[in-house]
Amino acid sequence: MRYLLPLVVGAALTVGLAAPAHAAGNEWTVDASGHAVTWGGAPRIGLVDLGSHRLARPANAVTAAVTGDGVVDVRGQRPDGQWTEWFQAPATLPVTTSTVQARVVLTSGKASRVTVSAYTAPAAAEDVSAMAAGRSYRVYATREGLVGGTTANGHTIRSRDHFVALPSRRGLAPNNSGSYSVQVCASNGRCEWAPVWDVGPWNTKDDYWNPSTTREMWKDLPQGKPEAQAAYENNYNGGKDQFGREVANPAGIDLADGTFWDGLKLSTNSWVTVTYLWTGSGPVGTVRTSAANGTVNVRSGANSSTAQVGLAANYAQVRVTCQLTGESVTGTQGTSNIWYRIASGKHVAKAYVAGVSGATSC
User: Is the dihedral of CA 218, 44, 37, 255 positive or negative?
Assistant: First the structure.
């Protein structure tokens, strides 16, 4: 359950017609008033997707100016085609990139003119702590619930839904996207792969999976330790979150009901191991299913007769460690006897995973 400010349920609001961006080298201007605003989350925010922009010259730093309300988040495309996390401008990105995407974050009112500039700045010390699979930490998980409410990216929460919330919008994926996804594993051996569609619990600027050099707040805490956990266990920040509220549990992730009950088969709030998949490298694919429950089965082997050991949610990204030949399966991506290993003892049929390139044989 999110312990944030009162939820205000919103809907997408379109103002006028979309206006094109006007490029001038590495500076471009967008009429944000011509783009849809998606409202949701608690505290309530509005997101305006300004699209991506191809730079005239590669750059690693971005500034932005907004006429009206809001701040601008930016991210850069990595050499492997994946995206960095979102950073509030002005920001130095962790990569030098040729493509930048921007979005406006509103708390009230609206934005009109947005000017974004990209340039080259001294790079921060390289962080090499992430392995191919991505950073992984043991954190306390709570059940979000809030069926019928609206997440920070505008998704309407359904009964037994499949997504997660993290306490920073740096890893917030757009609705119906898994560009930021996690692998969550419980002590019973079950795992779920799910997209990050909400912000919480407790804090909204606590990207605790990042090193102190880039962590947005609480830089004196150990990497991997959520502020809520430190507040609850060690009276850090006087036992309060960033909003001054008394922290009642050490949660570092919220799980939608389906992820909690069906994917992990939890019955109570629990400690789980979370892998932040966008921090890794290597082949990646996107789960696509038309199943009513919005998931595909994860199996212990390359055959549907092997044990079901978890679920992968629709739109979630999965890291592919290798591929092997198994049972022929027909799914949304056609018919194939190829299965992907996405973790030790965890496999998913290629017939339900799009976009994998470069996977090697197991």
Answer: positive
User: CA–CA distance from 329 to each of 26, 47, 193, 264, 339 (Å)?
Assistant: 47, 39, 20, 24, 9
User: Is the CA virtual torsion 326, 330, 336, 339 positive or negative?
Assistant: negative
Let me know whether 94 and 143 are in one domain.
Answer: no
Domain match, 62 and 81 both: yes
Structure tokens at 1: 């359950």
Instruction: Give the angle subtended at the CA of 144 by the CAs of 138 and 168, to the nearest 5°.
Output: 60
62 belongs to a structural domain? yes
Contacts of residue 222, Cβ cutoff 8 Å, sequence gap at least 6 = none
Band of pLDDT at residue 119, cut at 50, 70 and 90 = very high
CB under 8 Å to 201, separation ≥6 — which residues? 1, 2, 3, 4, 142, 144, 165, 167, 228, 251, 252, 253, 254
Tell me, yes or no, whether 220 and 175 share the same domain: yes
Residue 189 lies in a domain: yes
- Tell how strand 251-255 and strand 135-143 pair up: parallel
CB distance 48 to 32 below 8 Å: yes
pLDDT number for residue 82 = 92
pLDDT tens, residue by residue, 16-75: 333 344 445 799 999 998 899 999 998 899 999 999 999 999 999 999 999 998 999 999
Q: Are residues 275 and 346 in the same domain?
A: no
- What is the pLDDT, as a whole number, of residue 176? 96
Asked if 49 contacts 35 with a C-beta cutoff of 8 angstroms, the reply is: yes
State which residues form the domain around 77: 22-119
Q: pTM of the entire structure?
A: 0.90
